[in-house]
Design a protein that fits this description.
By secondary structure, the chain is an alpha+beta fold. It has two domains: about 5-115, Glutamine synthetase, N-terminal domain (Ubiquitin-like (UB roll)); about 130-445, Glutamine synthetase/guanido kinase, catalytic domain (Creatine Kinase, Chain A, domain 2), CATH 3.30.590. It is built from 14 helices and 14 strands.
């Protein structure tokens, strides 16, 4: 995969957008947080010809933005710069800014031009090269769940659903697939759709989900896993920015409310051969032997990948019985209680849906982990066992890791995933998340004050 875009792309864009004065250069870190810098338009062509320098420690930062020295990317190597190059096809205008502005995704390489091992984009690109050898091409679609929340917190500092722009009343009921909820926020969703279309992001549909203020947006399939991730990461930015314009916030936090359902990232994957034929298509609804091997590989790496699927303590709070979040390694057809679902549809569209991950997962790392499992399963011809029918929550099966610390321990000792993502990258990811977990566990929560301060 080439990470370089040609200067002609910049020249054409500047000619077509003479009023753009500033360009935001964006690069997603390990948490999927966009970092970077802003430049004036006159400097854009130089970015395309010479690149820009950013510190490699950008990928050694935890969720607070602090560099974790145990990654080896900070002071121990002098906090060195690396080169960043534009990602072709991602230069576009930013319609929500008052000043005419554009944005451009970047990816990091070593000073000698080799891919930078800690950049999630490069991690995914390395996994995709293994499918090139098999002459297979993953086709990927991402579904994102999120909450709209009021900018005003409760007296206790907690989030709360927004006030309807139509009724002025605070949302308090669950109206899954409700049309009134979509109508109430029609102007905002139309702005999101328009911004996505302007940035060539194929956002297909919005639906009301399983809690007040919760929604889901579906992205259309693309036969390029990296592009699918670009779409997801940039769509999150659009949704957050447009929500602010409407005096709300959008959050992809996995579990913002204790009693309400969590928000997930569902990944749909099919597999095309060199002729564009879907090799997951089989003679019945359970698909081909290749599809079953792919699921077998996902099962083999499911526990190892949990630290990526659920990247913090809050993400693990989603995993509750009968909450549409899978609790064990299960698969089945047309069944939303399993971990790997085979959706109903035409034979040509045969695919799997991975339903475990939180909305807070980094899409590049998530899809890299899933494709690693799929490749492992296809090449090893792994068997997932029988498909589940009925309610998977009622089965007596071993549970997936239910705590962040357990998931990190399993990730630290991974045998398969570490070879796909590389031991060097896994060391950086584990160091960041271990430090983040340590800091999180040191905090004293309001609930602890409420329960223990006076009574013990």
């Amino acid at each position: 995969m080439s990470v370089r875009a040609t200067p002609a792309e910049a020249e054409q864009f500047l000619d077509e957008h003479p009023h753009v004065s500033t360009v935001e250069l964006l690069i997603p870190d390990l948490n999927g947080v966009l970092r970077g810098k802003r430049i004036e338009r006159d400097a854009l062509l130089k970015v395309y010809t010479d690149g820009i320098c950013l510190p490699g420690s950008l990928f050694g930062a935890d969720i607070t933005g602090e560099t974790v020295e145990a990654t080896g990317l900070g002071f121990s190597i002098g906090d060195t710069d690396q080169l960043c190059w534009p990602v072709a096809g991602t230069l576009c205008t930013v319609p929500w800014q008052k000043r005419p502005m554009a944005q451009l995704l970047m990816t990091m390489v070593e000073l000698d031009g080799k891919p930078f091992f800690a950049d999630p984009q490069q991690v995914l690109a390395k996994v995709l090269q293994k499918f090139d050898v098999l002459k297979l091409r993953p086709q990927v679609a991402v579904e994102l769940e999120f909450y709209l929340i009021d900018q005003q917190r409760t007296p206790q500092g907690a989030p709360q659903p927004p006030l309807s722009p139509v009724t002025g009343e605070r949302e308090h009921t669950t109206q899954v697939y409700g049309m009134n909820e979509l109508d109430d926020y029609r102007e905002m969703f139309e702005e999101i759709s328009d911004a996505a279309a302007l940035q060539n992001i194929p956002a297909e549909a919005f639906v009301a989900e399983y809690a007040p203020g919760q929604y889901e947006v579906n992205l259309h399939y693309v036969p390029d896993a990296l592009l699918a991730c670009h779409h997801a990461i940039l769509l999150k930015r659009i949704i957050k920015a447009i929500a602010r314009r409407h005096d709300m916030e959008a959050t992809f936090m996995a579990k913002p409310y204790s009693e309400a359902t969590g928000s997930g990232t569902h990944i749909h994957i099919s597999m095309l051969d060199e002729h564009g034929v879907n090799v997951f298509t089989g003679e019945d609804e359970l698909g081909s032997e290749v599809l079953r091997h792919a699921i077998g590989g996902l099962f083999a790496t499911m526990e190892e990948s949990m630290a990526i699927c659920a990247p913090n303590t809050n993400s693990f709070r989603r995993f509750q019985h009968s909450s549409f979040v899978p609790m064990s390694r299960t698969w089945g057809w047309n069944n939303r209680t399993v971990a790997i679902r085979i959706p109903t549809g035409s034979a040509e569209a045969q695919r799997l849906e991975h339903r475990i991950s939180g909305a807070d997962a980094n899409p590049y790392l998530l899809i890299a982990a899933l494709l690693s499992g799929i490749h492992h399963g296809i090449t090893g011809r792994l068997d997932p066992g029988p498909a589940v029918t009925g309610n998977a929550y009622e089965l007596d099966l071993p549970s997936l890791p239910a705590e962040w610390s357990v998931a990190l321990d399993i990730f630290a000792n991974s045998k398969v995933l570490s070879q796909y993502l590389t031991p060097e990258f896994c060391k950086v990811y584990l160091a960041c998340k271990t430090e983040e977990h340590r800091l999180f566990e040191r905090q004293v929560s309001p609930l602890e004050h409420q329960w223990y301060l006076r009574l013990v």
